[in-house]
Each structure stands twice: as C-alpha cells, then as structure tokens.
Amino acid sequence: MNETIYNRIAMLRAERGISRRQLAEELGVHYQTIGYLERGKYNPSLYLALRIARYFEVGVEVIFSTEPFPRLGERSA
C-alpha cells in the first residue's frame, strides 16, 4: 500500500509570499520540517495537518491528498 501524502504547501506559501522559515515559526516546527513535507519525505501528523490548514484558512483536503494533484491548467477527469 502506497502511503504517500501529496500536498500543496509550497504553492500556498508562494501565493502568500511566505518563506519556509516563516511558516515553520508560525507552526512551531523546524523549518526543515516544512521542506521535508513539501518534498513528500515526511507525512504530517493529523494535528500538524490541521494546524497547516487552519493557518492557510482552507480545508485540510485542499492541501493534502492521497492522490497527486493535477498540474495547474490541467482538467480533472
């Protein structure tokens, strides 16, 4: 079973002009944790996933998925 969790953290950070370090400080985690999350090297705990969603003011499913997100400009089937 593939346990990869895909995310849009980097995209959301870029849209808001927030660095990894700034996001990490807001969430109380090490800035490298944000990098690991963005690269799919680390899956967040449910608690951290919910805190990230709350920070960006979106539902957790907007940020995290068990399926790859479509590329920008692609239509979903």
TrEMBL record:
Keywords, sorted A to Z: DNA-binding
The UniProt record lists the keyword DNA-binding: yes
InterPro entries per the UniProt record, alphabetical: Cro/C1-type_HTH, Lambda_DNA-bd_dom_sf
Pfam annotation, one family: HTH_3
CDD domains named in the record: HTH_XRE
The HTH cro/C1-type domain, residue ranges: 9-63
Superkingdom of source: Bacteria
The UniProt record lists the keyword Cell inner membrane: no
Protein name: Helix-turn-helix transcriptional regulator
